[in-house]
Design a protein that fits this description.
The protein starts with a helix and ends in a 14-residue tail after the last helix. The protein is mostly helical. The chain has one domain: Up-down Bundle (Ferritin). Helix content is about 75%, strand content about 0%. The longest helix has 28 residues.
């Protein structure tokens, strides 16, 4: 098959997988969210101002490094499962559910911390769905890694909320059960 035919088949399968959805497709959203989140956190590190900035810079810099590792580990497990992973900026933008914008550079450090809590929570919507799908599809390696990422995200939410003086779920909508 030609490169064009191979890519056309990939896009067609991806569309089917995203409409079903499958664990692989849902994890593609997780990968896109991780990639976009890394850029958002970097933007905050570069531009945040306010008394919370030292905490933000240390916390976000460490989170970026962990998210790079998580991205790579998830990508490898998906490839082990014969799944195709998003690898282009266009795919990351299409599959991510996190909002990014150049104007965010003007947020205060405190506002950035609140945004990060909400972004981790948004990521958890996809992670919890992917965990259920991986279990249903009998993909234990993928499921285990996703459970680990969910735990890490929950820890980050709790730590950020504590710094802000909030309870762990304060200001976050409760997830539905689907």
């Amino acid at each position: 098959m030609s490169i064009d035919a191979l890519y056309e088949a990939e896009v067609s399968q991806s569309e089917k997988d995203h409409h079903i959805p499958t664990a692989g497709a849902m994890t593609g959203h997780i990968l896109a969210n991780l990639k976009i989140h890394q850029e958002k956190l970097a933007q905050a590190v570069f531009y945040a101002k306010g008394s919370e900035t030292p905490f933000l810079k240390e916390f976000f810099s460490q989170a970026i490094q962990t998210e790079i590792r998580l991205f790579d580990e998830l990508a490898q497990v998906l490839l082990d499962e014969s799944e195709v992973i998003p690898t282009t900026t266009e795919e990351f933008n299409r599959y991510s559910m996190l909002e990014e914008h150049g104007k965010f550079k003007y947020l205060s450090a405190k506002e950035w911390l609140v945004v990060a809590v909400k972004d981790f929570d948004t990521q958890n919507l996809f992670i919890t769905r992917a965990i259920k799908l991986a279990e249903k599809e009998d993909k234990p390696a993928l499921q285990a890694l996703l459970v680990q990422q969910l735990g890490w995200n929950n820890r980050k939410i709790r730590e950020l909320q504590a710094f802000l003086g909030h309870a762990p779920r304060e200001g976050l909508e409760e997830d539905d059960d689907d």
